Amino acid sequence: MAKKLGVGVIGCGNISQAYFSFAPLFRGIEMRACADINMDAAKARAKEFKLRAETVEGLLKAGDIDIIVNLTVPAVHYEVSKQILDAGKHVYSEKPFVLSVKEGLDLKKLAERDGLRIGSAPDTFLGGAHQLVRNLIDTGKLGKITSGTCHVMSHGMEHWHPNPDFFFQPGAGPVLDIGPYYITNLIQLIGPVKQVAAFASIPTTERTISSKPRAGEKILVATPTTIHGVMEFENGAVVTLNTSWDVWSHGHAPMELYGELGTVFLPDPNFFGGDVRITDAAKPVKKLPKWKHPFGVANQMHSHGMMANYRTAGLADMALAIAEGRPHRCSMELALHAVDVMTGMLRSGASGKFVAMQTTCERPAALGVKEAKELLAKKK
Fold first, then answer.
1. Before 289, cis peptide (omega within 30)?
2. What is the DSSP string of 32-84?
3. What SS3 class is residue 212?
4. How far is CA 29 from CA 56, 322, 373, 380, in A?
5. Which carries the bigger pLDDT value, residue 105 or residue 1?
6. Which of 101, 193, 220, 253 has the fewest CB atoms within 10 Å, i.e. the most exposed one?
7. 284: closest CA among 268, 265, 267?
8. Rounded to whole angstroms, how far apart are CA atoms 109 and 195?
9. Where is each Gfo/Idh/MocA-like oxidoreductase N-terminal domain found (predicted)?
10. Rounded Cα–Cα distance for residues 342 and 113 (Å)
């Protein structure tokens, strides 16, 4: 049994609640402390989850912390992750990992110099639904994947997030904020991307917040909020990705992949579970039975009903991979390649040119039923 690695968190905003709530599901990690530039926020989270509140500097120096989770805003992901590595600790970042390939390569160099690991969200591709599709592809049920479509479209974060400003600044927008779930899942299913092309626009330059407590305030939009992109994968597949925060309603499936032998309809890769539907050549579409995968089991109430939520799975896998001396699935290489794809789309949208990828990566190891069970803590 590998010893538990001590985990600290920098950034005590909305997403930190999910990490603290679900960490006890997994073995190999123990949440011990949290920090934030707003000490009151750190103290509130620490009290809520019975942790130790630290200053950022104090957490970086803490002797009982092996991994620090970077939950700061995207604009400072690079800076904070660099501080964590310089402090001699492994880092696991929220998405997007960084905002440029150069930043990612700089962090990779630092980590390799000191024998440290870098991991990054999203880990939703480890969910039961997406790993079922991975199994279908790996066992040849669909034949070679030749093309596909993805759509993630809504009318923006200002209608529910208490502080939505950063979503509309450079470093965010729908392709960098929501795109990681879709692109990371595509990479683990199909493989790395060769080149991209895209169109991008800012249809509305000012947004009105309708969520509390700032309802009625105006925020300026400084990054594209509608991006229609196309990815050519190294295996030859061509997949369309449409991301937008300028759409009130649509009828598109979140993700469809078209293979030589059939089509698979995937649930939203922002979530771990959901229904998987498939066709066998020209036969009618059928819904597959639920796979007995632990990360597909509904465990949290959501506005749409009970849903499967196993965020922190990627962090736990990284901790156990460190102990076991194996690659972790939510790897730096995977996250950086996704950043390469997303920033490539933004560059293509600005220039009107195809953009070749600067990076590549291996598909992460599949997480089957047995492997997923091995990540979970034993019930008392």
1. no
2. EEEE-SSHHHHHHHHHHHT-EEE-HHHHHH-TT-SEEEE-S-GGGHHHHHHHH
3. coil
4. 20, 11, 15, 16
5. 105
6. 220
7. 265
8. 25
9. 6-118
10. 27
Q: Backbone phi, then psi, for 21, in 5-degree steps?
A: -70, -40
199: number of Cβ within 10 Å: 15
Question: Residue 166's pLDDT band (boundaries 50, 70, 90)?
Answer: confident
pLDDT confidence of residue 170 = 87
How many Cα atoms within 13 Å fall on the side-chain side of residue 353? 5
pLDDT > 80? residue 310: yes
Q: Give the position of tokens 């479209």.
A: 153
Which residue from 10, 1, 61 is spatially nearest to 31, judged by alpha carbons?
10
Per cent of the chain over pLDDT 70 is 99
The answer to whether the CB of 11 falls within 8 A of the CB of 41 is: no
DSSP state of 205: S
Give the Cα separation of 108 and 328 in Å (integer). 15
Average pLDDT, the chain: 96
φ/ψ (deg, to 5) at 53: -85, 130
Q: What is the mean pLDDT of residues 119-143?
A: 98
Please state the length of the chain. 380
What three-state secondary structure class fits 333? helix
Mean pLDDT, residues 2-31 taken together: 94
Q: Say if strands 238-244 and 118-120 run parallel, antiparallel, or are unpaired.
A: unpaired
pTM beyond cutoff 0.70 = yes
Rounded mean pLDDT, 246-264: 97
pLDDT at 348 over 80: yes
Structural contact between residues 357 and 195, judged by C-beta atoms closer than 8 angstroms? yes
pLDDT digits (tens, 9 = 90+) for 45-101: 999 999 999 999 999 999 999 999 999 999 999 999 999 999 999 999 999 999 999
Q: Which amino acid is at 310?
A: Y
Residues 243 and 153: beta-carbon distance below 8 Å = yes
Residue 134 has pLDDT above 90, yes or no: yes
If we measure between CA atoms, which residue out of 67, 64, 57 comes closest to residue 120? Answer: 67
Find where tokens 């899942």 sit.
Answer: 185
Contact 176, 243 (CB under 8 A): no
Residue 41: is it exposed, middle or buried by C-beta count within 10 angstroms (0-12/13-18/19+)?
middle
Using the predicted structure, report yes or no on whether residue 8 has a pLDDT greater than 70: yes
Distance CA 200, CA 351 (A): 10
